[in-house]
Request: fold
Amino acid sequence: MRYLPKSDAERSVMLREIGVRTIDDLFAPIPAEFRVKGDLNLPRAFAESEIVDYFRQRSVENGAGYTSFLGAGAYSHYRPVVIDSLISRGEFFTAYTPYQPELAQGTLQAIFEFQTMICELTGMEVANASMYDGSTATPETVMMAARVTGRRTAVVARSVHPEYREVLATYARYQGLPVTTVGFLENGRVDLKALEKAVTDATACVVIQSPNFFGAIEDVAAAADIAHRKGALLVVMISEAVSLGIVKPPVEADIVGMEAQSFGVPPSFGGPYAGVIATKEKFVRQMPGRLVGETHDKNGKRAFCLTLTTREQHIRREKATSNICTNQALVALMANIFMTVYGREGLRELAKHNLSKAAYAAGEFGKRAKVLFGGAPRFNEFVVETKQDPKTINERLLEKKIVGGLPLKKFYPELGNAALWCCTETTTRAQIDAVVKEVA
Amino acid sequence: MSPIRKATTHVNQNEGLIFEKSSPGKYAWKLPELDVPEVDPHQALGAAARGDLGNMPEVSEIEIIRHFTRLSTWNYGVDTGLYPLGSCTMKYNPRVNEVASRMEGLAGAHPYQPEKISQGALLIMKVLSKCLIEITGMDAVTLQPAAGAHGELTGILLIRAYLESKGNPRQKILIPDSAHGTNPATAAIAGYAVENLKSNSAGMVDIPSLVAQTNEDVAALMITNPNTLGVFEREIARIAEILHAKGALLYMDGANMNALVGKARPGDRGVDVMHMNLHKTFSTPHGGGGPGSGPVVCKQILEPFLPVPVIVTKPNDILALDCDRPQSIGRVRAFYGNFGMLVRALAYIMANGADGLRQTTEDAVLNANYIRKKLEGCYDLPYPTPSMHEVVFSDRLQTKNGIKTGDIAKRLIDYGFHPYTVSFPLIVHGALMIEPTESESREELDLFIDAMRSIAEECERDPRLVLEAPHTTRVSRLDEVTAARKPVLRWKPKEQPAAAD
Amino acid sequence: MVVPHISPVLGDVGKVQIAHVCQRRADVGHPHKKEERKMNYPSELKYTKDDEWLKVEGDTGVVGITDFAQNALGDIVFVELPKVGTEVTAGKAFGTVESVKAVSELFAPTTGTVTAVNEELANAPEKVNQDPYGAWMIRIKLKDKAEAGKLMSSADYEKYASERG
Reply:
């Protein structure tokens, strides 16, 4: 087997030096009746070229080369080529968690820069070195708010991504954390009056998303006000990170939960992505996930290390802030490089392009169908209601190698024939014009 | 100093933070011409429009390439050399896995794209599922969990849902004192109380304690097998029986599967549910701390409770995702799992084939035992029980000069190796946990063994050399106390400009 | 990887004690050996087997951790204390003390209500290492002064500490 750096002769010598006769002598601790006889029923070994062919074929069967108008928590942005060049360096790629800082300053400094940039973009004071993704960051923010406030219920807006809410429900059920859901208005934003009624002094936090699932930007200040008046925290989830280039960051929030996938991470059929939690400095000890801090070595040289590790599972075990061990480091590094490539001016221009493309598309759709939630500002997604079932429209589009907007009936049955459309900087005018024509 | 045969010194670039190289007007991006009318953000967004982006960096492409290239030279990876971290399984990350996962239709696939053009991805997931079931001797699988700890949570929630369906979820989970920290942390998140289970003098689960502590309040035992000492829990079938007799289930932490693949199957020995770590056993890259992937395999009794969606085969062999599962525990994450890692794991299985996987496991166990044999003279072996794929020593023979396992680990850096796992498992005082994996040649193992022997000698002859190590890295031992007392968690510019609005 | 840690285990299987810290020494030695100084146990104080000290001043008890404890914990980075007004119970945890790689619970020597908390420790936790008997943590209005009588004297505690090395 070509990944195994040993010849049979070497194996024999080593067995002899260990003092056993055969390799199976080393498996003697496993009772014989439990040992596999022969080999498992698995595919035979493939040559490297056959492996490449196999996956290339799967890629063809998987819509390679199609134009997509899907968003809804996973966004198709252009990935600068330097990202893959750099993350493929073996020292980043094949390194372990930086528990031994003397040998991991590359990873640690990169994470420190990531934490800094997330703070700059979100308006928060500290940020962690990533969670699994935006959907799992959601329950983590709620559990954090529960720890900070000592309260055990939460209120979440129905305009938050439906799958984020499902994940929250799974976690909350076993934490004994009842969650109340509050609806949205005709402008697509959360119903603030209903929110006011739902928040009590047993509420640990209010959770909204901005831009929300429909692409609408929430009134973060008003939601913060409602939460704070009752002593609850405001959690703002962000699933389209590129929006931070042009949309005011949620500075009134106490905790921000983010999905960083838009920052140079391929959509990859749903993962791996990278979630982030950012918050105010005063809450840092209740924050889950890895944190990198600045320090110096014994010669006074600046260096970085994991810090505040007593929050984590390997020390506090069942009293840890979370059970999380991993930190999606490589994915966060992609996001880091993306943010660095675009930087201060580029992120703004990038966001402007997204805003403009979606505005144009919404305008064109509006001439042939109904664009919902018009009363609120939006970023790069919008909802279109058509006379025909969007599923039928999409079938037609698929034949032209176009993937249409996401039909919303399964998440929001009351919206009928509505679909969620997304345009990014990669969407061309020609593509928009072509797709609008198909929509009757 | 003894002759050090491996390259040790790290490239000593003084590369600052990216913000320190930033300067207005430098840029590394260019967008295409806007082909639609430009929107004025203040008109479109009103009060929600942002001012400028404050302290975000402005640098050129060459500076970015140099910055991250220099940073990378300060790291050690599997690509550099032996990485003996115990229970981490730092094996070779095959490059063909990267080519496979970057195919346009796979990397560019949106999770919500129509079923018709997702057959490629679904087939990959289905084939991988079948392989994992075959490898573990289980009946069903979910690929959704994002990492090992996430898999643990999913597994425990499956147990909880099953017990609830029988009328009583029960209150506690038994966890051996040798367990990884994620185990008790996970149990707590799943709403269970944790009860410690002592290990016996051989470092294995103490059967009399298990019998005494197993009752109708216990939902499950979380076991790692081989355990964190690298020792196979021989009594696993009996352990399963004791639990099942009281209606409790057996959860297995699959972190150490690298000792079992192709040689033994947990499902054959009474395990009801377990998670796998694709980033350990199945060669997906560690990437400096993630991403991972933690699929969960289980017996049929737990199948109805699996997270949604589940892959099903419709008529005409069309693959689909089924969300209509009334007993499901729900979602543990959005979408379907870390698909990019699933591709890599399948590519690894395909490159090996059944006999390659078996040979891999055999070499992993061979390598660990070789190290054990060669070092058992100079380092204390706290337990005489045979090791599988990893070996645990202690620093007992070295502590008389005030040297601890952490010091020996730091000195190992000077010999060109990454440290082993320090001070874990907790049941061994001053533990040195070493897992070489199958990816090491005899030559690399001998270099490691020579280094460890040399350090043992230094502990006698010249303790200061060890106590003040490492001597050859870019930074020496860090002040982690100040980092914890006065955390500095972000860079700040010297003069604080108005915050970005 | 890391650490000796103290895991608070629920139920009656065991409880976290600072004593356990002493059994799990730090995983690195000290390059510059600390001066072998004699441990200090002021005679006017009372001591618990969880390594806290208690000073009785009228019907107030002042609480901190002993020289033995701070030495075993190593550099202290954070002290988590309850709010004024919290009820504490003898033998139950009232807070935690953290070093870089370990967390230990603090146990109340007596029952009562917290009347004062040493705010200085929030910014200067190292004071506990420098002056364990001056760096008080909480003051308690004692519910039952007789409880103090059940605690160890300085001589008993010194003996107890030396047995644990």
In short: Chain C has one domain: 8-164.
